[in-house]
Amino acid sequence: MSGSRVPAAEFEVEEVLRAAHSAIGGRQEAAVDMLQVLAPDGTMAGGLTAEIDGEPVDFSPYLAATDAAHLRSLYRDMFLVRRFDQESTALQRQGQLALWVPLTGQEAAQIGSGRALQPQDYAFPTYREHGVALTRGVEPAEILRLFRGVTNGGWDPRERNFHLYTLVLAAQSLHAVGYAMGIQRDQLADPSLPEAASVAYFGDGASSEGDIHESMVFAASFNAPVVFFCQNNQWAISVPAAVQTRVPLARRAEGYGFPGVRVDGNDVVAVEAVTRWALDHARSGKGPVLIEAYTYRMSAHTTADDPTKYRLSGDEQEWQPRDPLVRLEAHLRSQGLADGGFFDELAAEARAMATALRDAVLSMTVPDMESRFATVYAEPHPLVQEELRFFQQYEAGFVDEGKHA
Amino acid sequence: MATMTIAKAINEGLRASLTQDPKTLLMGEDIGELGGVYRVTDGLKRDFGALRVVDSPLAESGIIGTAIGLALRGYRPICEIQFDGFVFPGFNQITTQLAKLRTRSDGMLSAPVVIRIPYGGGIGSVEHHSESPEALFAHTAGLRIITPSNPQDAYWMIQQAVSCEDPVIVFEPKRRYWLKGEVDTSAPAGDPFSAHVLRAGTDATIVAYGPLVPVALAAASAAAEDGRSVEVIDLRSISPIDFDTVTESVTRTGRLIVAHEAPTFGGIGGEIAARISERAFLSLEAPVIRVGGFHMPYPVARVEEHYLPDIDRILEALDRAFAY
Q1: B66 part of contact set with chain A, CB < 8 Å
Q2: pLDDT tens, A29-39?
Q3: Model's pTM, two decimal places?
């Protein structure tokens, strides 16, 4: 061996990461306005206005529901989904789930946008939209069926207008656009139908996928009533967002010819208002909107991930004070909008939900293999039928063996 | 009865589907004003409008992906992929999304999307315009794959694909688009997923599909001059495959040749050979012999005639089968 090879351990890992990050970062923050109503310290702005595509937009009509009961219900949803996330992580650690995809840190982006949807709207999630799922009436245990390995779905999407989780990044964004094209046609055929829109959820990582580009091209071409809701949680597993985009993601919309806005994804009040505005924009025939919810994945990508290998602890600490729950709790407490009893009751409700969730997971029925043959095709298929017959005979052979033994 | 080309028969079949079901719509590149690069959709935009005959942006994943979304909303999209070699940008949407939607939803959702793909060589074209990728899709559970070889089948099979609740890929034999034949638009359609015996024989069976069906029939005629009675089966459906019809034939003839333009390695012919060896082993006088493309990217146009199975290649295979 020639030369001297310095063992990697002699480098300060934090130092190396810091150097790498500073080389690519620093561009995004200044380049676009971020809409915010509820500041990290819990103070609430009186209104929200912005300039979008050179036009002033007043979000006041969409901020209407900032009364105490509404704010408490937003907090409740965020608190419950965080508890749901913690319980699911624990279930995975205990070997009860194959995998878990945490959402901690993204509660405001998900609850705010999910609560903005009307029943007739239709949302297409990735695999992390647990908060949105709960706002659409999906039961917590239904979400875990996929991760328990008893189904690849979990609920009837037609009942909840909430599609099944999609694990191939960005594939669902095209489905959302096609669905929106269907809404357009339905409304032309029957103008008495309620105006509706679809929502494509994706993340900063998926924004690099070609399907995001194609879906935005199609949406713009056909002026489809679709809202692209991108949760920029800063990390595509181990690669920071700044590597994947040289401009703020919200600004990409300009290239497709529709509005793009960045909202503080940890501010549930602003997220809800901006999403309501965007849905209104899409439903009323004005075309697609891209929302970039600027947030932070406070946990791992999945339970198989180890963020300590690629990101700085200081990075995580920097985002801690911007926690979406902390700021709303601070606001509720400082303004006297919720008392200790509210928080105590909520904690009890969350504990009960977690217990029920655990019971539901442990008692989930495992489907039999035979049922897998039934859903490959909608219409009879001779090969599947033949293989099912083989499987049944093969299995029956073991039963006979048992009897004779 | 009317005489028309395969291209016109598909056009008429699409017209019938668009007329019968307001939820059907066509999507594809240049299918509207232009009528598609092969004019298969000629005149349909004029008659059904831009909402039913959609000129899409040039993006195959976009076409398939939005078609899935439309299907989820209750529509029955019929997508045109311009050429066989251009389907691959949409491969992910077809295999990971379209094919799996029913299983993923535990049978709650259907994806009745039709994908039309002109396929095969023999047209002297440039790269990516002459391929036969059907085996790649046949390997994917959840998809159905059919391929008409004549105008009568073309007229009916496209409509049957549209009315099927499962996703169906229709591989259209592009070098036969101008093949003329009789079409009975009033005849009730047979099962699109069954094989048809086109010529009866007693000494050997040739299974072919799509563009090679006329070649197989011509080879059988030539063999007859040598005193060999050869049965010809038009497979028509590549997934599922009608193994019953093929097995019944081989049980009588004892010899089987499978011909397709696609490379033989990992192809449909190999699947048929394996199944028939299981089902009719004791009836076989010779191994099942495959005639197909070589294990190479589709060759340049100036040499494609040496690549594509022709009458002589099939006759040579028959000779080998009879020599056993």
Answers
A1: yes
A2: 547 889 999 99
A3: 0.95
